[in-house]
Every structure is written in structure tokens, then in C-alpha cells.
Design brief:
The complex is a heterodimer of chains A (64) and B (150). By secondary structure, chain A is an all-alpha fold. Chain A has helices at 5-11, 16-23, 27-34, 42-52, 56-60. Chain A is built from five helices and no strands. The longest helix of chain A has 11 residues, at 42-52. The chains are: A mainly alpha (64), B mainly alpha (150). Chain B: The chain crosses the membrane at residues 20-38, 50-70, 95-116, 122-145.
């Protein structure tokens, strides 16, 4: 599933490792989320949204 | 939470490790079944080792089945008393069907001299199987109803 996590993470000048630590995941998981190879749980989506100060729509909504 | 306290906090890692555990459990069941089969029909091992295979197999399967029964996740559409009664009737019917099939298979095995049981054993075992099947499904139904009502 495509998403905007990488774009907004870089806007906040965070590395994957830093974002991972802030949301309680590993760098690998963040990488897999950003490349669309893993669909995170709602809890993790919300944690990422809070850290990046974005809504779930901003991060994960797919335009048809 | 059972034995999951040793799993990692990262959800992706946790999911993959649980997948590997499920695969290894399936492999264990296959190997044990093979061991029981080899021991029963080809006398590949001593009787004690064959018995041990059976004990380990029953323990592994039994634990999973018991956890499943008490988890309340089997009957996901039972929300009120009508659903409960409908499902209870289905459980009784399927319990009797299963017992009938069990009896038919046991009788066939006895007829072809594959097993050495006498008719009292077959009837008794069929009755125990019937009670167990209905009881297990009834307990699972009660736990599912309680979980859905919450």
C-alpha cells in the first residue's frame, strides 16, 4: 500500500531509526511501511501520525 | 497472554515469529504422525518410543484445541439467545453425525480385523466421543456468546 510516511518523515528531518524509536518499532519495520511492503496496525498508524503531526488521511489515504 | 511475553515488541517481527512458530508446529505434528504411523504399522521403533510420540502429539494438539475452545472466537455470529439456541441445535446434530461416522469407521476396522476391540469397546468409545464433541462445542459456544455480549 502506497503512503506518504517517507515524505513527511523527511520533512521533519527524522531518520528511519529515530522515527522507529519514537513509535516503538524497528528501523526495518519503518522501511517496510515506507516501501509499501507491510501494512501496519491501526495503533502503529496512529503513533506514526502523532509523531509526524499528520492525520491518517494525510499519511495513508490513496487517491483513486 | 499465555507464553507471548517473550515475543518482540515490534509488530512486524512479532507477526513473522508467530508465523514461524505456526509452521514449526505443523512440521512437528507431521513428524509425530509419521512416527506414530511407522511405529504402529511397521514396528520401526520400540513401543515406548511410539507411545511417547503419541503423548507429545496429543499434548501439542490438545493445548491448541483447549486454548481455542476457551478463547470464545469460534462462534462469531452468536449474539443473542435465538442465535445461541440455533447454534446449540446445530452442535447436537453435528455431534451425532460425527459419532455415527466414528462408529461406522470403527466397525469397519473391526470387521476387517485392523483393530482388536470388542463391540462393548466400540460402543463405549463412540458414546464418549459423542459426549466430548458436544461438550467441547457447547463450552466454546458459551464462551463465544459471553465474548460477543461484552
Amino acid at each position: 500500500m502506497n503512503n506518504q510516511v517517507k515524505k513527511y518523515r523527511m520533512d521533519k528531518n527524522l531518520t528511519q531509526t529515530e522515527l522507529a524509536e519514537l513509535v516503538g518499532a524497528t528501523r526495518q519495520t519503518i522501511g517496510l511501511i515506507e516501501s509499501g511492503k507491510y501494512n501496519p496496525s491501526l495503533n502503529l498508524c496512529v503513533s506514526i501520525a502523532k509523531v509526524l503531526s499528520k492525520t491518517l488521511d494525510d499519511l495513508f489515504w490513496e487517491d483513486s | 497472554m499465555g507464553f507471548v511475553f517473550f515475543l518482540p515488541k515490534d509488530e512486524y517481527k512479532r507477526m513473522r515469529i508467530l508465523q514461524f512458530m505456526a509452521e514449526s508446529f505443523l512440521l512437528l505434528v507431521i513428524v509425530l504422525l509419521l512416527g506414530v504411523f511407522l511405529n504402529r504399522f511397521l514396528k520401526f521403533f520400540d513401543d515406548e518410543i511410539g507411545f511417547l510420540f503419541l503423548i507429545v502429539l496429543m499434548s501439542a494438539l490438545g493445548y491448541g484445541i483447549i486454548r481455542y475452545i476457551f478463547s470464545g472466537i469460534e462462534y462469531v455470529t452468536v449474539f443473542d439467545k435465538n442465535d445461541f439456541k440455533k447454534e446449540l441445535k446445530k452442535i447436537s446434530r453435528s455431534g451425532f453425525k460425527f459419532a455415527f461416522i466414528f462408529f461406522a469407521i470403527s466397525s469397519s476396522l473391526k470387521f476387517f480385523n485392523v483393530i482388536n476391540f470388542n463391540w462393548y469397546d466400540i460402543f463405549g468409545l463412540t458414546f464418549i466421543v459423542l459426549i466430548l464433541i458436544i461438550l467441547m462445542n457447547y463450552i466454546s459456544l458459551c464462551f463465544s456468546f459471553k465474548k460477543n455480549a461484552e
